[in-house]
Amino acid sequence: MHIMNLTPDSYPIGTPGQPWGATELAEWRARQMKQRSYAADVLNAIDALRSRFDVSTYGEVRYGDEHYPLMAIRSRHWQAARPCVLVTGGVHGYETSGVHGALQFVDQHAQPLSEAVNLLVVPCVSPWSYERVHRWNFDAIDPNRSFRESSPAQESVALMQLIASLAERFTAHIDLHETTDTDESEYRPALAARDGLPFEPGTIPDGFYLVDDAGNPQPAFQQAIIAAVQKVTHIAPADADGQIIGSPMVAPGVIRYPFKSLGLCAGVTGARYTTTTEVYPDSAIATPEQCIAAQVEAVRAAIAFVVAAQRASADML
């Protein structure tokens, strides 16, 4: 667990106690520089999957003269009797292992699993912020607080429209995320500055954990994922107060948030089984490859749980 040594009201943009206006937003945008390529890293990887999966453009994000196609990967030969599973990554563009974990899962594991489930994978929900290694979009909005009616985030609207366009009801949704040191050194201070609030330093958990839905808790589902992932990387312990990122740990490596009321991506389908994964890429005892592997293992374990649950239900009929 890392405690960040930051002082309140130290963010370089804005006036303490005053929310940002257009001037501060423009200053913030000017600081966001491209650091990697969505086309090279994501679109090229998706193109390589077209011979084995159905690939579609479900929307487009446009900011000024920049535009990014939004891509979805779908297993072939969907069948009504199979559970439908959604996997999303890159809702926060800076959370690298979510994007590459989703792509690696499709490449290495999705084809055989599609004999048991219908799979829809959206590897990178927020391409503008992926390129700039940032949490927010161009408008300094967090897409993962924007999955709601009249959403201000293009990325969130596009994904909600994709899901609404499908006739199928999803059984599970796994949303792949990271918690990084920059959450405390950059993003939470920026959030406080943007909203004109004081910044209150917190702690960063060292290890993998899950966020369950407080409105629809599925403890057995979460623990099945934790059990699988702990074979790949370490699970985050609770802090001295029994919490992870300020929320009570309800089971090893699990906390709960109200998905719908917070506008979180994991609440967008209304699926029975939902979770948000969180890996810690800044850990001294985890590599970037382990973080990607943890995301892949989380998806595989979630699907295995769903398939077993469906079989158990069928056996009772």
UniProtKB/TrEMBL annotation:
- Which keywords has UniProt assigned to this entry? Hydrolase, Metal-binding, Zinc
Q: Which domain of life is it from?
A: Bacteria
Cofactor(s) in the UniProt record: Zn(2+)
**Residues of the Peptidase M14 domain:** 34-310
Quick check: keyword 4Fe-4S in the entry?
A: no
Report the transmembrane regions from the record.
Answer: none
Instruction: Respond yes or no to whether keyword Acetylation is given for this record.
Output: no
Which protein are we looking at? Peptidase M14 domain-containing protein
Q: Where is the active site?
A: 278 (proton donor/acceptor)
Please report which protein family the annotation says this sequence is part of.
Answer: Belongs to the peptidase M14 family.
Which Pfam families does the entry link to? AstE_AspA_cat
